[in-house]
């Protein structure tokens, strides 16, 4: 029995070690404190910006609709502890509660781990303007905190209204409902601060993200997502090997794919030829050349088409080109007496090929999303199955040894009787 007890204990110990080694993470910032101020813009234009910070990606978009929030807002008081219906994931730590300070900080505290979400307003003398109105919506999937500030001492009575959205999956978002135009850039601050505890007497490290003052205006949406280990992959092959990562060719960097709604946005922004503010109208452009051509031969048609293709490609390289989805017609107000049938057939064949390529891209994106979902479930299912099999094997071995100890005395008695 002593042997079987040790065997069962070893199974338990090995199982615990396996699970701990699978889920324990080390903070790189403890060895490299400079990562706390790390910031890199991957792509941007006049209406959006996508950048990387330590542990988070930041996506900023102007002129966005108000986010849909399930549940009702309730008026609340500041400097009071609030308990959400889920654990808040913040810089790789879980927090059960938070405080909204009177001057605007959202403090997330759990023992020695601390986090601060900044959205506050200062007056002309850079003194904090306290919260005038605070509302909170709390449900199982999302926590919404709406803060309103009024600087009544200012002649224009400046107003700053912002909603902070904290999702159960770790995503954080800011939406600026109303920002008075009279507010100066140094009067508002918005971003994340995290205090990360390090072991081996390395002390605590600070990490910070910031929203530049130029983006803080009415209708701006700021979204933060967990990056995970994606930025550690330095090559295309390593990045593609990670199921939740995507290689950004424009920035030559590996980024995360966490949110399906902005996946296509990241793909378009990371392509070298897809630049900012591209608006392509495919409506007909009427060019009156005032020329009369007696005939268009096949070589002439090919030359004209190749020139058009080269011009289009050159426009795609330039940033701030506007692209929409209609077809450009060029009406030459010319007299064309002959266009050969093979040339027309070749042009018509190009349209199905383009359509097929677009369909292939869409299908590939859908398949990638489904593959990521299945792979994420495998990370949970496989360890559980292995643990279950180990427990079953241990139980069978224990039962076999137990029966062996019970049956052996009877076999010996029967054997002695046969011999005698």
Can I get a quick summary?
With about 425 residues, this protein is an alpha+beta fold. It contains five helices and 22 strands.
Please describe the topology of this protein:
Layout (H helix, E strand, L loop, with lengths): L1 H22 L15 E6 L3 E6 L2 E6 L12 E2 L5 E2 L5 E3 L2 E3 L2 E3 L5 E5 L2 E10 L5 E2 L1 E8 L3 E10 L6 E10 L4 E8 L8 E10 L6 E7 L10 E6 L9 H6 L3 E4 L4 E4 L6 H8 L14 E2 L11 H20 L12 E2 L9 H79 L1
Parallel strand pairs: 21-22
Antiparallel strand pairs: 1-2, 2-3, 3-18, 4-12, 5-8, 6-7, 8-9, 9-10, 10-11, 10-16, 12-13, 13-14, 14-15, 15-18, 16-17, 19-20
Organism: Schistosoma mansoni (Blood fluke)
Keywords: Membrane, Transmembrane, Transmembrane helix
Protein name: Egg protein CP391S-like protein
Could you state the order of secondary-structure elements as H and E?
A: HEEEEEEEEEEEEEEEEEEHEEHEHEH
Tell me about the largest β-sheet: 9 strands, antiparallel
Mean pLDDT: 72
- Count every helix, treating DSSP H or I runs of 4 or more residues as helices: 5
Low-confidence stretches: 1-5, 11-25, 273-299, 304-339, 354-365
Percent in helix: 25-40%
The 3D shape can be described as elongated
Arrangement of strands in the largest sheet: 1-2-3-18-15-14-13-12-4
Termini Cα gap = 32 Å
Q: What's the gyration radius in Å?
A: 32 Å
- What share of the residues does DSSP label as strand, in percent? 25-35%
Structural class: alpha+beta
Secondary structure tally: strands = 22
Give the oligomeric state.
Answer: single chain
